[in-house]
Amino acid sequence: MRALDPIVAPDSVEHRLELETLARFGATELMATYDALQSALEAVSGVLNQPRCSTADGRSYNAAGHELERLAEHLGESARLVVTAAESFEPAGLHDGETRSWLLLKAQIDYQENLSEIAALAARCAADNAHADFLNRGKGSAE
């Protein structure tokens, strides 16, 4: 990582995350990326909800609040993109399958989706992982 020059700052900063790039990630990399984005989103949201990001009357965001809101939206959209990549990810083995399942379940819980949908997803993930484990054992290999 290059050290920042305190005198010369960039005029703008941009980050672009693409599904094509995420499609090359492994399950562990997808999980790490999702966790980092969600942690950053929670941190930005925490600051965004402080009075210092609101106008004097507290009814809307001030300039900092608006910028942080845009950043929070970007982080949330990026996290959802990682989930989309995980949904189409083909696990190479049992560990990949379990990691993918945990990521999908985490996302459903983070987004506070319907509890019945979370339970159904958990059941599907458990069945998929049990099937993968059965197939793996049938091959006579240990993962």
Description:
- The chain is mainly α and 143 residues long.
- The protein contains five helices and no strands.
- The protein has one domain (26-138).
- The two termini are 35 Å apart.
Order of helices and strands: HHHHH
Q: How many helix segments?
A: 5
Q: Biggest β-sheet: count, sense, barrel? A: none
Structural class: mainly alpha
Mean pLDDT: 88
**Uncertain residue segments:** none
Shape: elongated
Report the helical percentage.
55-70%
Q: Kindly, what is the distance between the CA atoms of the first and last residues, rounded to a whole number of angstroms?
A: 35 Å
Question: What is the tally of beta strands?
Answer: 0
Radius of gyration: 20 Å
* Strand residue percentage: under 5%
Number of domains: 1
SSE layout:
Layout: H1 19-22, H2 27-48, H3 63-87, H4 94-110, H5 115-138
Helix pairs in contact: 2-3, 2-4, 3-4, 4-5
Q: What descriptors fit this protein?
A:
single chain; 143 residues; mainly alpha
Brief digest:
By secondary structure, the protein is mostly helical. The protein has helices at 19-22, 27-48, 63-87, 94-110, 115-138.
